[in-house]
Amino acid sequence: MNLSLSGTVVATHQDGTDLDPLWSPRPFLHPVTTLAGTTVTELAPADHRHHLGFGVALPDVSGTSFWGGRTFTREHGSVLLDNHGRQRHLRTLAQGPDHHTALLSWTDPRERELIVEERALRALPLDHRTWVLDVRITLRNTSDQDLSIGSPATNGRPGAGYGGLFWRAPLGPRPPAVTGPDGLRGEQALHGASVPWLSLAGTTDQDAPWTLLLHQLAPDPDPWFLRAAQYPGTGPALAWDRRRPLPRQATLRRRLRIAIADGHQDDHPALADAVAALT
Predict the structure, then answer these.
(1) Is 22 in contact with 50 (CB distance < 8 Å)?
(2) Quick one: which H or E segment has residue 93?
(3) What is the mean pLDDT of residues 88-110?
């Protein structure tokens, strides 16, 4: 399934059914491209083989990993466990050239369903060099027990509160420049910051400049997990420093918009305002 604008494919949706079980198989978007065709997602890079473009990944749902790779434990640090879950497509609810809404079933290693997710994706035009991906997710606990969402940080690794909507960008010749609101700049300033938006401005190995601006459409934004120097990846963290309860039949909703632009933008606050104003 592709997302297109004016006949141009800007994102490809993959179901993940062919993935290694150790990567917590799940649907994801890759490649995602700028309007000029520059790819701004990365798939299974050598540094983190379980990073899959853009999607929803949680390292700990009551002990099940929907992130892939190793699990951080208080007793033994980062270890490989037989705890990998799977997200499977149940059915499509709506589909068109520029949008796709689907139901997904999240199951644990014993094939027991823990969560049903509704995921809505829409491509929106902004200007001649920028388009916007609008993402809405609803996670509903369909198990027979109360669940909770954790992270390596909640399991004893400070600063590693990743998990949720996560974007892995491609490595370039240098780390991307990172910008946020109120003059915030750099990985150290924005990692863990509960601000509405942040941007990454990078360059590919082919010297093609790109900009991503991720904007949480919420009155109380989640803290950002951010990596720039080691690798380019970011997303709002659902369990930054404490576990997030998800009781039986409870739902959790999040919405994120990502501006995807050719070149490096001059006015990031103006771009953030334009992204938020889209209807």
Answers:
(1) yes
(2) strand 86-96
(3) 98
279 pLDDT more than 90: no
SS3 140: strand
Where do we find the tokens 């933008």? 265
Question: What does the pLDDT average to over 133-147?
Answer: 98
Tokens linked to 116 = 């049903």
Phi/psi at 272 (5° precision): -60, -40
- Positive or negative, the CA dihedral 133, 41, 197, 126 is negative
Helix, strand, or coil here: 187? Answer: helix
**Which residue carries 């963290």 as its tokens?**
237
* 200 Cα distance to chain centroid: 14
161 contacts: CB under 8 Å, gap ≥ 6: 151, 152, 153, 154, 192, 223, 225, 237, 239, 240, 241
With 0.90 as the threshold, say if the pTM is over it. yes
Q: Which of 236, 231, 230, 225 is nearest to 258 (CA)?
A: 236
Query: Strand, helix or coil at 275?
Result: helix
What's the count of helices (H) and strands (E) in the chain, helices before strands?
Answer: 2, 20
Q: Which two tokens stand for residue 91?
A: 């059915």
DSSP line for 218-265 = SSSPPPEEEESSS--EEEE-SSSSS-EEE-TT-EEEEEEEEEEEES--
61, two tokens: 């749902």
